[in-house]
Structures are given as structure tokens and as C-alpha cells.
Amino acid sequence: MARQEAFQGSLPLLVLKILARRGPLHGYGITVRIQEVSEDVLRVEEGSLYPALHRMEESGWIKAKWLTTENKHRARVYEITADGRRRLDAEEKRWLAVNAAVVRALKHA
Amino acid sequence: MSWFSRFLNGIRRDRLNRDLEDEIQFHLAARTEELRRAGMSPQQAKEQAGRQLGNALRLRESSTEIKLFPRFESILVDVAFGLRLCRKNKIVTAAAVVSLSLAIGACTAAFSLIDALILRPLPVNDPERLVYAVYQSPGDPEDRAAFNYPLFERMREASRSQAQLFGMSFQSRRDAVFDGSGGQPEKVYAQWISGTAFPILGVKPALGRLLIESDDLKPGRHPVAVLSYDFWSRRFGRNPGVLGRWVTIRDKQLQIVGVAEKGFTGVEPGIHTDLWVPNMMSDETSLASPGWSWFRIWGRLQPGVTADRAQAVLRTVFTNFRRERASGRRADEPRDSVERFIHAPFYLRSAANGPSALRQSFERPMWVLGIIAVLVLLIACSNVASLLIARAAARDREMALRLSIGAGRGRLVQQMLIESALLSIASCLLGVLLASQAGPLITDMLSTSYRTVRLDLRLDWRVLSFLTAAGSLTAFLFGLAPALRASVVSPNDALKSGGGKQTARIGLFRPLVAAQTAFSFLVLFVAGLFLASFAKLGRTDLGFDRNNLVVIELEAKDLRQGGQNAFAVWHQLLDRLKESPGVQSASLSGWGLFGGSASTQNLRIPGRPVDAYEHHYLPISPRFLETMRIRLAGGTDFEWRDGQEKSPSVVIVNESFARRNFPGESPLGKRFFRVGRGGTLIAQDIVGIAGDAKYDSVRDATPPTVYALLQPESGASLQVRTQLEPAALAALLQKELPRVHPAFRMTGVTLQSTLVDDTLVRERLLALLSGFFSIVAIVLVAVGLYGVLSYGVVQRTREIGIRVALGAQPLRVVRLVLSEIGLVTLIGLVLGLGGGVAASQFITALLYDVKPSDIWSIAAPLACLLFACSLAALLPALRAARVDPTTALRHE
Q1: Is the pTM of this model over 0.80?
Q2: CB contact (8 A) between residue A46 and residue B27
Q3: Could you give all domains of chain A from N- to C-terminal order, each with its CATH number?
């Protein structure tokens, strides 16, 4: 667990942001997106995404439905909810504020 | 692996698991596809995708936990598994549940009693603002709460801005005759109260109206009464037609005007009031005389007024009133005793939970018994903990297996705690059942022939929350050790073939065994003290023979109406009785010994300094001493002709009286004086000396007592020495009484031995219950020790085998097994002894003629405990001694 902890805090924020920008995506798609946008800085056991997704689903920030792909695979597709958008807004503001504060502190400390 | 498949087959899990599996499969397929496109071989791509995904098992577990019912499902699974385990180990489960439920039941019963008697606030408005007044007599720290009416009236006027005062009499059992019942008297608990009492308390009517201020203005002018809901239900089946009916109590006719609200049983825990009457309907003398103290003064503090301020105001009134009263005293009284009388301490006490005479005598015993019950619960806890540890050790491999295939340690701890919780819940349910039976049983034990104790032992939220707290605490206590063990299981060691290194050494049990021994010694020690006290009380010489003696309360209201000489009529009654079959002798007294009544008098003895000492008095008829079998140590008994004079001066004194007042000389023929009403001196001539006989307490030393000649008028207590049963004697009297005089009525029939026993209720309760608890404790300790030792022997069979093979003697082997526990037991005993010494300070007041420091007080429980422990150790020791090296070693 310890390995993922640093990442755990920001993972929901990233997921929400990606879903808000790109629309519905399945888990694998989200993984790929995260790796792309973070340029592999945020590397993690891909498995830990799923518990995070399920937790967010329980909290009502995202909702999921099953689709069948062209090659007959069942794929679970996630979509951001209105609640999730509000959450994203708040989290984003908070994250930026904290970030700015840390940056300031690093500069002037 | 079977547990895991069970685990997965849990309730409504299939779909969830399939979905999760599909999602993971989809991810793996997509990743593999991509890697393959990037140039990997299909095999490589698949492996790489798996690695990148991480631990799929853990992923599953944490995801299913999140799904739908976070944690809830895993709990359900653990519960199902735990139940299955319990069913598999029937004996362990039964032993655990029986000992726990017994202990939890005892604790719950103790709590509900303590709650009803001590803790629970009165069911009235804002009970926190209620107070009642008490004072203390010189040299006696006990609170006295009986006040007289003139003082009350003055206090009420003086303190209007501090508190609303009202008076409520002590509940008393009275004969009541309801109209339409054919004149048949019934016993009711009646209480005389101020008209303002109900409004100030905030009690509402269930029917009709309650007493109000205007019901309590002029003596004898307010013939109304209010019933309690309880009595209304019991006696009248909740018939609303009860309003307007009449009831006669103490010669007063009263009309029932209402019923108080449900749940209001009066203001004194221990006694339920049946009927309330305005104060103004009690005797006129009781309202006018400062010499009649018959009720409690209550008050509700005015808003913003502290109890201290109200107390200061009332204390001034109290002291002034006493000063005026003291001016009427005899001039020869010592100044300091008069001063002490005037400045008697006066306090306001909180009445939030209701003042209670019962509580005064039973508060401490209840706490002591409650603490003993808690100790037994702790013993049971450590017992069950040992059982569970032993069982958990056998499950090391299961735990290790679960760990190694990815279960979190948290899950294992949860599993163990849930199993403990299951045991605890079962025990709580059984325990509540037990408590609901034991509570009323104990309440009955508190009742005596003259006092029916009724406690409201409902299963309310207070009792239930206590039960929940006790249950979860015990589950935590006995579940903690096995759970901790589960969390440190090392899969590597446990899964090695043959069990490898044994992780559950006997060391884990050591603190448990020590705790058990300490607690059980404490319980046995305290119980031993109570049992010895009770036994000694029972053997104490009372100075009279309590056996084959029936005491009858007689009333004869209109004896004088025919112009007859009352004295002669009573004499005639005794004569008739004496000739009845089965009656050896009969006599009369003003009240019975040990009947709860007493009278004391201040005396003047020529040649001795005046003091404030109060001597006990008892008016008796001739042959009282003979009937009671009190020894006549000198002089003569009274004779019937003594009573023909107007005020006979003859008295008989007991030996304690002689020793105190006439040391070194014979009191026969001496004269002393009793201080009568208005300070007059009444001469008393000593004609006889009686052997010392206890008056109203087995415990107290015989008080210096004066037996005066009884001049029976409207009532007396009749003693009959007879082989007859009380009922047979009552039937005989029923026949004989009207023949002597139609005015005679019996109001009570009891055995003298019952009256004596009734004064030992507290001691009997303590002895019985603590005795019972000590048996439970000793059985629990023996069973626990047996379990631990047997487990130790099983664990070490191989080692013992090797030792025997190397030539160890059986005795050495036994010592090896026992030494592991022996020292711990000893430590436990020492701890228990220390606890006992500390506890004995708290209980000395409850003991009689027994010292905690006596050698027997310590030796007896020690011997009992050692005996039980040796018995428990015998079987495991024998088994260890009989270990056969060849089988023991082949076993591996």
C-alpha cells in the first residue's frame, strides 16, 4: 500500500479532470491518459486505479455502464456526474492553492 | 483453501465478482494488445501486462470491499464463518457462553438494581432542582429526615423566595376499607402530602384530578384521596368508575378524586405508594404538635437560587425553632447537651433520585455486590480468552494460508473480533434473560414482613446501554489476545510442514491465569467475610428464645365504651389464651422486640450526674419475661395487681442498665426518675432485674433497658409461646377474641424468628449472593486452569516425550508442567490478597465480629482456591506423567 499512498490523494482529481475533458472512458483508457499527460512521472501499479474508480463511483462522483466493444469484449465505461464536476471544481481550486503555497514557500523559505 | 472458496461464494457476490473480473480482463487484454503492437511477443506482452496491473487478488479484495456495502459484506461472511466454527466446537462455545452469560447476567441484574435504587432520577419535572431537608442528632452522623408540622409551616413561610417547600409523610402500610368491599380491610401504602406537592413535582393526572393547594388548608376538612396508576390497575382493573368512591383510612373517610399518571410510583425508591391523602387529613395533634415528627420536608429551589443559599435560610429557622423548644426543657440539663440540641447540623440534600431509607442501608451492599459481579465477569473474560487462544493456536495454519494468498491482516483481526462478538452477543441475550429473573428475586429478598420492597426493574435504555457496553467491552477484552495473535502469525513459520516452531507458548496465558487467580481470591475473601459475619449473627445469643414464638399485633379501639376496665379485659384475654390447647404461655407488650419500634427516655438517677443519654423502654405485661424466656436475674416479675393502681411506678431493669447506673451495687429497691411531658419527673421503683436481651438489633450491644408495666388500652403486641403454626394460632384467636371482647382485631401475625431475620436482610443478602458468586468464581478458575494446563501438556507432548526418553522421572515431568503455572498462580494470590486488604476498608462497616486481618479470613479462601486449583491440575499432570515417549515421538 505504501507505494501508492503519495499518489492516492491526487488520483481522484486526475481521473475527474480526464473524464470531464474527454468524456466517457473505460479504465484502461483512463490509465493510458494518466500516463500520457503526466509523461510517466506518476507511475503506479495500474491495478490501484480500479479500487479508486469504485470508491469514486460509490461516492457518486462518477457513474459507470457496460458497453460491448466491436470485438465482443464487455467494457465498463465511466462518466463524470454533476456531483463529480462540482467536486472537481473544488478540488482543483484547493490543489492549485496548496500548490501555489508550496511553490511560494520553496522560493522564499 | 476451502475457506477461500466459501469466502468467494458469499451472499450475492457472484455478479459483483464477475463484473470485476471482466473489468480486469478487459484491461489486461487492451494492455497486451498495445504491448504486442509495440513489438513484444504475445507471451511477453501478457506477462508484462499482468505485472503492470499488480496484485490482482488484493485488487479484488479491496474493490469488493468498496462495492455496495463497504465492509458490511465481509462482516457477513465472517459472521457466517464464525457461526460455523462455533457449531463445530460445541463444548468450547457452550463453556464460553455459559460462563459469560452468567457473569453478564449478574452484572446486568446488579446494574438494574443499582439503577432503580440509587442512580435513576425521579420521574418528575426537573428533578435536579429538588431538595429535601435533613438534620443530625448529636453523636450520630446518620441523616434524619423526619420533621414536625409547626416547624415546617415556619420554614415554608420564611423561605418562599428561595424554594417552594412541601411536606410528604413517610409511606406507611395502612389498613384501608374501600366502600363496597364489605368492610374488609386491605393493606395499602399511603402517603400524606402537601396540596402543593403534585403541582410542584409536575405530576399529571391519568384520571380525574390530583391534589391541589386548596385541598390542604384546614385540618380535617378535605376528605379526598388520589390513587397511583399502579394501584388503580392492580386493585380496580383501571375502572374509571373508581372516581367518587370512598375509602376509610385511620378512621377518616376519603373520596377518590383522581389517579396519578402512569410511571409515577411515588418519590421513594424501594416503596411504591398506592394512595395519597392531603396532610390536613392526618391527626390534628400531628399537625399542631412540635413533638410529632412524621414527614419529610421537600423543596424545589426557585430559579437562580443555589441549594447553599436556601440551606442557610432554612438552617436559621431550624435553629431558632430548636432554641424556643429548648427553653421548655428542664433546668438541670447540662448546658452543652442543650447547645448541641439547638445547633444540630441541618442540611439540604439533593432529591434528584429520591430520598430512600432502603438506599441508606443497601447502597453500599449493592455496590459491593456489583463489584463482585464485575470481578466474576473479568474472571469469565480471562477464561474465555484462554479458550480462544488455545483454539486460535490450532488455527495458525488457516491464518497463515489466508495471509499468504493476500488477505489483509486487518481482515484476520476482524475475523477474530467478530467471533468474539458472536460469543458476546449470545451471552448478552442469555444474560438479559438471567438478569430479568434474578432482579425480582433479589428485590424479594429485600422485603420483610413489615416492608414490601418494590423496585422498578424495567429493561429501559439505561439497562440496555449498560448491557451493550458490558457486552462489547467483554468481547473486546477476551477477543483482543487471540486477535493480536492472529495479526502476528508468520505465514512462513506456520506453513512449514509439521507446524514447525510453535508460536503459542503457554506464556500468553500467564497474565490471564494471574488475573483469574487474583480476582477469584478477592471474591472468595470478601464472600468469606460476609458468610462468617452472617453465621456469627445467627449464633449470637439474643437473651430471649426466638423459636416457637408467635407475635400478634392487636387493636381494640372501643374497649372502654362499655365502661369496662380495659386492663381487666386484656388480662382476661391472656387468661383465656393460657388455657387454650398448644399454648404454653402468653404475654403482652407495647410493641414487639425486633418489630421496628423503639422508645427511649432520658432519666434522672439520684447520685449520678445528669446526662442526655436515652435509655430504652418497653412496656410489658406480667409473664412477658417468662414467655420470651428472658432470664430473671433478681427480684420479682410484675403481677397483675400492680396494674390496678392509677400509675404504677414499678419497673424491671436489665443487667446492662444495672451495670451502667448502679455499678457495684444491687439496683433492687432503688428509685430513679423518668423525664415526662413538660419536664415533670416520674418516679420509677426497681423491683426486678432481667438478663440482657437484645431490643431491636442483633448487631448492637444490648442497650440498658427499662421494662415498665404495660397499661394496655387501644392496642398491644401479643406474644404466644406455642408449638402451633402462626396460621393455626391466628385461627384460634379469630375464634377467641370476640368472646373476650368484640372490639379486638388482629392486624398482624408473625413469628418472632421472622422478625429477627428481617433485621438481618442486608447481611443475608450479602452472604447469599457473595457465596453464590464465589462458587461461580471458583468453578470458572478451576475450569480455566484445567484448560490452560491441558493445552500446555498437548503442546509439549513431544518435548516431554524426549525428556522421558532421556530418563526423566514422571515426578519431574509433572513439576515441569505445573511450574509454568505455579508461580503465576502465586503472584495472582499475592495480588488478590493486596486487593482484599484494600477492599476490606470499604466493607468493614458491613461485617460483624469478623476481622479481615484474622488468619482464618485469609486461610479459608486460600485453602478453597488451592484445593480447586489442585483438582484442576490433577488431570493434566497425570496425563503429562503418562506420556509414552515412543508414541509421542512417532507422532511427528
Answers
A1: no
A2: yes
A3: 2-108 (1.10.10.10)
